[in-house]
Design goal:
Helices cover 17% and strands 25% of the residues. By secondary structure, the protein is an alpha+beta fold. Strand 5 and strand 6 form a beta hairpin.
Length: 144
């Protein structure tokens, strides 16, 4: 398989289930890959998007979150934690098959984590324990 972004597909743990982004025009799991779509716009487009997103995250001023320095391609199913709403309903917010930008950072002085997931329009920061347990939404907003 060949990629649009230059990643070595043979080293990816998902290569046996992925349809390849060149072969699918940037939709390796039958849904859009944000990385591929921005790479198609030119060499600087993805870097610019990442920088804007990192800045947007920093402006949230979450005091006990480690500093965000990088965003990685992240399949939605890895980040699509279930959240319990105040009315008791359980929901997921992301498409399991789409590729987003994200990262996981430690919460300072805690055994919990912050998960960051974003696309070109929405940004979510959530807090959770091991394996996504006891997840709660810290911020979910339109950012761009």
């Amino acid at each position: 398989m060949k990629s649009i972004c230059g990643i070595d597909c043979t080293k990816c743990e998902l290569n046996s289930t992925c349809n390849g982004c060149l072969e699918t025009n940037g939709q390796p799991f039958r849904a859009e890959c944000i990385v591929a779509s921005y790479c198609k716009k030119g060499t600087a487009a993805l870097s610019e998007l990442k920088e804007k997103l990192i800045t947007a995250c920093k402006l949230l001023n979450i005091p006990d979150m480690e500093q965000l320095t990088e965003l990685h391609a992240l399949k939605g199913s890895f980040a699509n934690i279930e959240y319990v709403l105040p009315n008791g309903q359980t929901v997921k917010f992301w498409d399991d098959n789409r590729i987003y930008l994200g990262n996981q950072l430690h919460k300072k002085n805690s055994d919990r984590y912050y998960g960051i997931v974003a696309d070109e329009k929405y940004l979510m920061v959530s807090e959770y324990g091991d394996y996504g347990s006891d997840a709660e939404i810290i911020v979910f907003k339109q950012w761009n």
